Protein 1
Amino acid sequence: MKQLSFDMYQWMGSEAQAAFERAATRIERPAGSLIYAEGDAGDTMFRIVRGAVRLTVLRDDGRELLFQIYHQGGCFGTSSVIDGGQRPQTAEAYEDCELQVVTKAQIDGLRADHPDLGDAMLRLLSMNMRLLISYFAGSNLDGIVAWLAQRLEEAARAFGRETEDGVLLTQPLSQSEFAAMVGTSRQTVNKALTELRTRGLVINHGRYLLIKDIDQLRRFGEQGLGPG
């Protein structure tokens, strides 16, 4: 299973990483606290040292869409330090977390001195763009079950752990969070989860979800996309 990592360090050399570490200020945020809100002005980006951060977008109809849950190493808030625009998502501490914070001015200097850092930011933005495109495609699927399968496969790559029984999501997700993944109601997502369980693709493992066959789940999710 190819892991989905949002850590810019994977594309940066040791010198650029060390420079980022020197420039960054460290802050701590308790679980449930707001880091920034969608629409806020922003001139800082963040990297997770410890804990998890939840990124969400508010739809026009008032429903919340869960963009992603970032874990250790995850970098977010990058678009605002690139273009100076408003925050496109809301970020809140999903767990008690420690964050590295770097300002736009610092990033500009680091990019000038370390081109691989600038390249890493472009790669991260490209990854986020690809995810958004897949979400848009998923939102137009005939079946919510196929879209949920896609989001679960992505979650498995982002924070799943391979076991002899399948891939275990290491983050317990509530019914509301499953619903927010696909922008639907809890009742609808519960029916979709039941369908995936009936097909033997996922099972509950205590408070966690176990994906029995990640490749089969991926194929099931792709069925709704049609030719392209």
Protein 2
Amino acid sequence: MYFLFRDQAARHGTRPAVRDEQRTLSYAELADRAEALAGSLRERFGDDDVRIGLYCGRTVDLVIAVLGVSAAGYTYVPLDPAYPESRLDFMAKDSALAAIVSDRVLSGALAGIDVLRIDGDDQGAAAPPREELPEPSPDSTAYIIYTSGSTGRPKGVAVRRRSVAALVRGVLDQYDFGAEDVWTLLHSYCFDVSVWEMWGALASGATLVVVPSEVVRSPRATIDLMTRHRVTVMSVVPTVFRYLAAHVRTSGHWPSTLRRVVFGGEAVDAADVRIWRATAGKHCEFMNTYGITETTIYVSTRTFTDAELDAAGDERGFAAELGRPIPGWEVAVLDDAGVPVAVGETGEIWVAGIGVAEGYVNRPDLTAERFRMLDVGGGPSRLFYRSGDLAVRAAEETYHIVGRADLQVKINGFRIEPGEVEVALRGIPGVLDAIVTAGTSRRGEPMLTAHYTSESGLSPERLRELFAAEVPAHLVPGAFVRMTDLPRTASGKSDRRALSEELTESRFA
């Protein structure tokens, strides 16, 4: 995997590779520092197959750490300094970390683990010759990223080097990313989109701008940073983009150099794209992706056309088309019997191919449940990952994602997808964003609760009235809760689990 960067370092040694608000490193400088770190790690662990934790802030040092562990041939495990001690302790023990690379002194749950301090200003003085570094097996593990589990216990997803290399090569070969581009590293390195942001930029000879966490939390600061650094490529979760688009609309200020937005992680709302285009113009391309951590970030991609975005108009949440699988990936939409669905039918998305992960760390039961050998379409039996995502077959080779199988709820005999209600709520004037959760009423009956933010101070009572006039009665939530902000995960996605079910009578209608 490291060769993706190494080849560009040999070709573009003097070009800027990565920068934060304090430092800029050229490709040659970044290679020297990464390989110095790799040499230090190999002096300690040699050819052992070890896992190295990364505990760094959002600076250039983070990128040095990722590249250094990869160059050494080891597995990196990202540990977010913002995580609770209990989660860090679980991740460190579950992944059996041999050491941690950090830009700070460790304490608490991580204090007893061997630490290698990284200081980007000092790295590189004794970098070993590049030919001394190993060429690890493509089937070895590149990284382990922990995702939330339904039981509350995080799941460590182990992803191979060949999967990352295939993903980066496959997408770069399909689209015109190049050395003149400037990318953002907008996401936490504990979220797998960061893998694409880092390796996609550095494998194409582009410049990567590390965005500080305090900037990410502010739409204004994010837009200002992108303008200042003349960013051309941004990968972003649609929830975050919604707030960026709203700021662009109200401020009239946008990064004029931005030419491509890569969506991922959630369904895209066409209205947010329309808001951006209405202010910033139509020169920027919007690329939609579908992907899962267990299938190496992305599975399929497609670029929205001007015609379909114009046709969407003010429509909220048009059904996202699945797109074309990346070369080496395979998508099947199957019914409960494991048979491909017919046109007009809905089924669950299963993914096969080079991107399918090794499985879950120390979770053989869950691995066996989600990763299965199937002979779909009469071909040879091959490993598929069961996504839990639902899609409808709109045409022979066209699928539209419609929601999650595990979020559906049955109320008064109606099977309801909360995402459908969220989309409809966002279409109500005055509603900026919404999350719908399923719970139980005081009478013990199933009930939907709509949590929303409003630009205009729209009251829960008024929203209920407006919403009831737009949708069938069974889609009207039992409670409406106005919030200042909706909770988000470290990756920027809407965080349903963080929403409290203990609502006071005064806050909802």
Protein 3
Amino acid sequence: MRMAAMHTATRTDTGTMFEYEFMVNAFIASGIVAVLAGVVGYFLVLRGQTFAGHALSHVGFTGATGAVLLGLSPIWGMVGFTLAAGIAMGALGEKLAGRDVAIGVILSLALGAGLLFLHFYTSYATQVTALLFGNVLGVSHATLMVLAGIGAVSLIALAAIMRPLVFASLQPELAEAKGVSLRLVSVLFLAICALAVAACTQIVGVLLVFTLLVGPAAAAQNLSTRLASGVWLAALFALAEAWFGVTLAYYTDWPTSFWITALSALVYAASLMGRYRATA
């Protein structure tokens, strides 16, 4: 019923978008998630850990389907599994090669478990689609509060570890020599990344997490070599893509995830052209 009402509103009255509670929730939720994804994603790209974001999204899917099978909210299963996996990835090794192996093992295990849960989850096709591709127009007030909490905790935690994180990301050998625990930094950052992934899946789904987590950050790094301006650009790009995506979805009745993904690709392509012109 709710989805039918949303589609009817989209087709019959496009002049009063913010009169609908689900649209207000969609803009607030996508804004929170976009800013979080842009900021966290910037450091994910900077540290060369984009594959970790991909792996965590699959782990989150396993957690979400498992939670539903137990009669729990999928977002809590998503948060619990991604957080545990992020901590495990960081703890299993901070060296690049070792980290890749650790991520690969966890991803394979998660996909296997997800396949098992999906076998028992076939009667909930609509919810499976929402998990895979997101459903920002269906965000409830309760979910909105959870996303706000995740965003606040993640950004505060990121600010708390900012200095050692930057040091460990740019000069890991020197940072370790100065007493910075690379393993601890990795654990804390990947835990934050896990929360960001769990939030992103509510907007774009498991399969399109890269759209908000990596696309805006990569575009920002193409246009700025300064850390502060790069972080701001990444957050701004992600926010613009999310809000324009929701708006275009409202006016066209096309999937929100498609529009956000398309806009992310356009912004990234434009950033490549901008970098090429700047260096030509």
Protein 4
Amino acid sequence: MASKNELQNTLKEKYGINKNISDSLSQAECLALLSVLNSEPSAAKLAKSYAEKNSGLAKNNAHYGRMRSQAERKLETTKNEYQKLEASIKLIEADKLNLEMRRKQLEQERAALEAEVQLLSSTNNALASKVQGLTTQNDELVEANTQLKKDNKDLKNIVDQIRLRLARDTKLLLQYEDSEIRKVLIRLFSWTLG
């Protein structure tokens, strides 16, 4: 008598019944099934039809299994990409917040600098007015100094003329005999000449 394994191989080769189907049968049941299929062509045809259908279902099952595996891998990849995008979005939002704070800080600094520039401009204008006033005063002082120098020169010339005339007149007076006049004139002359 053939072994169960040999009977299963015969069922597979002759009628297309896979071992995974015939595995649940005992050796005696495998032998009985083989006997029925050999004696009844309609049962053999039905078994072949089931075997073909089973083969088609197995192919479909394998195909859908591959598609499911691909879909699961794609889902996993999509989840990973989604998590990366989530993390990237959080980083971008944090950067955006930091940039917004920096923009506000720069706006405050710009406003402070504009106020400082305005103050410096006002101070500069005040100093320019002061410099203009001092320049005008300086010009007036230079002009007054020039005039004073001229006046001093004129006064010196007048004083020199007075001294010269006084000396000449005194010389004439000294020629007179009166000693009192002479003494007074000498004192006056000494005092005037310096």
